[in-house]
Amino acid sequence: MDPGTKKYYFDEIAAEAAADLLEQFWVLREKEPERYQMIREREQVLRTYFLDKLGFRLIVHRSFAKLEKIPVKAEAWMGIQDFIHPRDYGIFCCLLAFLEGKSVDEQFLLSHLCEDLLGLYPGGEGLDWTHYEHRKSLVRVLQTAVDIGILKVVDGDIADFGYREESEVLYEVPLVARYFMRSYPKDLFQFRTKEEILAAEWQGEEEDVGINRRHRVYRILFLSPVLYSKNADDPDFLYLRNYRNRIREDIESHSGFQFELYKNAALLTLPERRARFTLFPDNKAISDIALQFAQIVREQQQTMELPRQTDGSLQVTQVDFAKWVQICQERFGAGWSKQYREGDIPQIARDLLAHLIDWQMASRAGDTGTIILFPLLVRTVGKYPADFAADGE
């Protein structure tokens, strides 16, 4: 089935509103009244476009606008970025359960929440508020809840709780807290894994035919860094090749993104940097190193005549990967931050590999530990200009 023949009257305002809905969890009227109003005014064309192309449901409430973004598969970067321990997620779920028992606009004290969380938290480890790391987990959770908008601070500062167990904060439950969780096709307790939750999205339907293929392909393009071809007969890639002109016209006329299709990869890019989006390269020092490392990979592949896999990837040993990182440091290290300019190769290699994996530019083979470098890595390379001074001036 082709990408569809429906026409939408998308203007620049609708495109901006669509970008807000894709990038943010939701748009709260109280916090962002102008953005909320843009969505409200373009509600019909936005609703039709997202449902037709991605199968996403748009909810426009008097207090918020929310696009229910359900990915094809769960990615590590889709987690809550401020959470650093599994305990954080456990406490967050317990907080949601606690809020279910509260009325809208009801106020409660941090001490009462702490007492209830002790009984709600699952597992044998339990919570101990005399433990500094447990208190810091709760601080991260409550700060995130306030940032999202499902809690309001009436009085006090949660940061103090990280240092003193006796600290008190007064919270209030806003109306939008009732709408944080999306509805599921069946009771959550009937799901055993996150994969089962995602699979339920396609339950009773053919995942690889017609409109569902379009939904899946568009979701990967809009929510993930890249869509790779699995093999020569990959149906998703055949779909992209067959309808590439229509897909390009559709995406570029409804958003600020540009559609790029290569032999083994497809992705959306932006012609210029925009602050609202998470982009590669970002402002992190390791991101600059990734660009320079890509230059080294290109050179090493050609010099050593390393064979590429059918999907365009390159398999290297951990020893070779570290060796290439060392070459990269020797050539470009003069312009690196002090952390990496003076850092040891094993640590730089670990940080770099983790960054590349996050951006789907690399992975690690579970059985052998071999590092797989994907085509997206060498799409863009970086090197210093000719007048770059070795002393960093």
Automatic annotation (TrEMBL):
<protein>
    <submittedName>
        <fullName>TIGR02678 family protein</fullName>
    </submittedName>
</protein>
<dbReference type="InterPro" id="IPR013494">
    <property type="entry name" value="CHP02678"/>
</dbReference>
<dbReference type="Pfam" id="PF09661">
    <property type="entry name" value="DUF2398"/>
</dbReference>
